[in-house]
């Protein structure tokens, strides 16, 4: 079992590149608010992703598409106030970067200035190349995202594994090389064959973070609410649940309701 070989005091984009070079795996989780981010950071997670998955787990939308730039900034600002060690990466939401590189830069600047985030993440390859270059030229670090890109769900029509066919796999490899070449500091690969993900990770010098992409990459990311078992309808193969908080929280809240109705709470020691 691989364990961290060095103690990294404060994570930066350079730290992540160093971690890959040193063979140290990178841990990444989502967080969307101060309290949860405080716990995640304190537990030693290297990267906190303020993901547009907040659209699903925090707001109850079916897809990531409805969340706005203002909402992403709100979530990210709370996370940034909580952290002491982790690198905070913030998703650029759907519609904030795809159509116009100038709009992409404006969106990225707003995230950096108004939330205090350390980097942005956006989905896509050569089709968003100019937007990425514009953001990078302003000195803003960019994490790429290839494979299953949830903001394109209506184009794909399904959340199934991507890049199983040779043509799509070839494009993904080319896009990964392009993202490295223009200056991205890392790439997320989502829901692609493990063999392909390993090939990509070995072909580039920047870290590759996987979700549903096997263990041959440089790190892993999961949605916090999924891995803690707060959500219970979602059962992809790549998800390992480390707790069953849905059941634990339901039982605790039910017990609270019973105690209140039975006038058992508060008891003599719990009042002034």
TrEMBL record:
Catalytic activity as recorded in UniProt: (6R)-5,10-methylene-5,6,7,8-tetrahydrofolate + 3-methyl-2-oxobutanoate + H2O = 2-dehydropantoate + (6S)-5,6,7,8-tetrahydrofolate
Pfam families: Pantoate_transf
Signal peptide residues on this chain, from the entry's feature table: none
CDD domains (alphabetical): KPHMT-like
UniProt KW keywords: Cytoplasm, Magnesium, Metal-binding, Methyltransferase, Pantothenate biosynthesis, Transferase
Major site of localization recorded for this protein: cytoplasm
Annotated residues for binding of 3-methyl-2-oxobutanoate: 52-53, 91, 121
Function according to Swiss-Prot or TrEMBL: Catalyzes the reversible reaction in which hydroxymethyl group from 5,10-methylenetetrahydrofolate is transferred onto alpha-ketoisovalerate to form ketopantoate.
Name of this protein: 3-methyl-2-oxobutanoate hydroxymethyltransferase
Organism per entry: Gelidibacter sediminis
């Amino acid at each position: 079992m691989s364990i961290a070989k060095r103690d990294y005091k404060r994570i930066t984009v350079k730290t992540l590149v160093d971690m890959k070079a040193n063979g140290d795996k990178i841990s990444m989780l989502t967080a969307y608010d101060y309290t949860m981010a405080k716990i995640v950071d304190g537990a030693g997670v290297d990267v906190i992703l303020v993901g547009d998955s907040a659209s699903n787990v925090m707001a109850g939308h079916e897809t990531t598409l409805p969340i706005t730039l203002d909402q992403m900034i709100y979530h990210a600002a709370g996370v940034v106030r909580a952290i002491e060690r982790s690198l905070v990466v913030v998703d650029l939401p759907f519609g904030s970067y795809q159509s116009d590189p100038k709009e992409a830069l404006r969106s990225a600047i707003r995230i950096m200035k108004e939330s205090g985030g350390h980097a942005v993440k956006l989905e896509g390859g050569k089709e968003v190349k100019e937007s990425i270059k514009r953001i990078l030229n302003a000195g803003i670090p960019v994490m790429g995202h290839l494979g299953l890109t949830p903001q394109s769900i209506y184009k794909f029509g399904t959340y199934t594994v991507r890049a199983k066919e040779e043509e799509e796999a070839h494009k993904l490899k080319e896009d990964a090389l392009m993202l490295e070449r223009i200056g991205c500091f890392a790439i997320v690969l989502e829901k692609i064959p493990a063999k392909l993900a390993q090939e990509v990770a070995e072909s580039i010098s920047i870290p590759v973070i996987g979700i549903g992409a096997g263990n041959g990459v440089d790190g892993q990311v999961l949605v916090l609410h999924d891995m803690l078992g707060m959500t219970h309808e979602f059962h992809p193969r790549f998800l390992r649940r480390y707790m069953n908080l849905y059941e634990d929280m339901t039982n605790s809240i039910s017990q609270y309701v019973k105690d209140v109705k039975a006038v058992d709470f508060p008891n003599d020691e719990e009042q002034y």
